[in-house]
Amino acid sequence: MDFRDDAKLDPSQVEDTGGGGGGFRGGPIAIGGGITGLIALIVTLVLNNLGGGDTTSPQPTTNLAGQCRSGKDADQSEKCRVVGVVNSIQDYWKGVVPDYRAARTTLYSGSVSTACGTASSDVGPFYCPGDRKVYLDLSFFDDLQSRFGAKGGPFAQAYVIAHEYGHHVQNLTGALQGGGSVKTELQADCYAGVWTKNATETGFYSQPFTQADIAEALDAAAAVGDDRIQQRTQGRVDPDSFTHGTSAQRVAAFQRGHKSGKPTACAQSDLP
User: What Cα–Cα distance (Å) separates residue 110 from each residue in 144, 248, 253?
Assistant: First the structure.
């Protein structure tokens, strides 16, 4: 996954807030899942107040504008790579979703205050519809390998981010509130696959993604299937408590999106 050296990054789409304080505390929109549930990758958002605004206090940010200017920076820095991935994802979706509204990604460490409440990094990456932001503690990518057995790699990270922006697309189109939890998560996986098929056209990457890149995403998707996580953490599998889908379902959803390259292939009713 190589960025074009001359690709211009827009670091305003990513803010780096550093650390916060405290553990998860419920806000206007409850956040489900998390490390005490079955998965620490993408939390399920219970939409009981879509109209709720961001009532949290501003947090100090680190200016990424001086660090992340070009695709060359994205190839050399993890934070700038996040900027490049976010830029590419949003460039694609703004051409597909009418009146697309950009969502900022907030990088944090330890814990963070959001319109959905205060969350610790144990929750994993998540999207909060209350403030329309993606939240990401970069240490999660180490956990993805050490705790969930994924091979990791830059494209595994891109898959995680693309999945979260899939939730943003669902929020904008009204799909986030409909369907069951598993269907919602599988659709976000499918949307992530759609972006990978179209990413080169956004102008941020020097060449189409390779089979090795896609393999990293598929490996990450399989690693965070409910069945695999339950087997690792509980020694047994309980399908009735699934929240995100099995490894096979998550892989299939991503592949469906990647093969078609069209969001219309990701209708929740068509997913397993």
Answer: 16, 31, 31
